[in-house]
């Protein structure tokens, strides 16, 4: 396991509440600022690629350093507000993506722990079923469906018709 002490990284009730409250607060803060675009709208408005962002930044640089060369037909306060908001959103998205990646990695490790423990329990159940302990055979039979193609304690112990 890549993190020997990872099994101690569980959330207690207060931590879960704090995370949920922080997410609710974030959702509330962003509620009026979000947009819901259709696929067609995403296609239409999503045309500002990296090359076009360079154009935007160059026009902004010219406006900031040589405003006399800027078009009077543009609301430059709105342009600057859009630019500032876009930069804020981009940096916030990057921060959130970092959190998502970290949470996905933590989830992967917890999934791995659960799966390893489930396999250990399955092996134990197969052993107990092999000793005719009451109740274990139905459990093994139920779990065996998830291991198609692999021999189980119950199927490995029973010879096929050809072997009999």
SSE sequence, one letter per element: HHHHHH
Classify the helix fraction into a percent range. Answer: 55-70%
Q: Main beta sheet, described?
A: none
Please provide the count of β strands. Answer: 0
- Protein structure class: mainly alpha
Description of the molecule:
With 164 residues, this protein is mainly alpha-helical. Helices cover 67% and strands 0% of the residues. The chain is built from six helices and no strands. α4 packs across α5. It is elongated. Mean pLDDT is 89; it is low at 154-164.
Topology:
Blueprint: H1 13-30, H2 39-45, H3 50-65, H4 76-130, H5 136-144, H6 153-157
Helix pairs in contact: 4-5
Explain briefly what this protein structure is.
The chain is mainly α and about 160 residues long. About 65% of the residues lie in helices and about 0% in strands. Helix 4 packs across helix 5.
Describe the structure using short key phrases.
164 residues; mainly alpha; 67% helix; disordered C terminus
């Amino acid at each position: 396991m890549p993190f020997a002490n990872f099994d101690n990284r569980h959330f207690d009730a207060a931590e879960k509440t704090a995370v949920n409250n922080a997410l609710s607060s974030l959702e509330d803060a962003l509620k009026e600022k979000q947009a819901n675009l259709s696929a067609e709208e995403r296609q239409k408005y999503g045309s500002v690629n990296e090359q076009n962002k360079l154009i935007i930044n160059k026009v902004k640089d010219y406006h900031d350093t040589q405003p006399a060369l800027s078009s009077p037909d543009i609301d430059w306060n709105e342009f600057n507000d859009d630019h500032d908001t876009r930069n804020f959103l981009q940096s916030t998205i990057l921060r959130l993506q970092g959190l998502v990646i970290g949470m996905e990695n933590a989830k992967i490790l917890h999934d791995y722990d659960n799966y390893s423990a489930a396999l250990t329990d399955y092996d134990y159940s197969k052993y107990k079923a092999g000793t005719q302990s009451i109740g274990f055979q139905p459990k093994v039979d139920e779990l065996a469906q998830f291991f198609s193609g692999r021999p189980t304690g119950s199927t490995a112990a029973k010879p096929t018709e050809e072997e009999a």
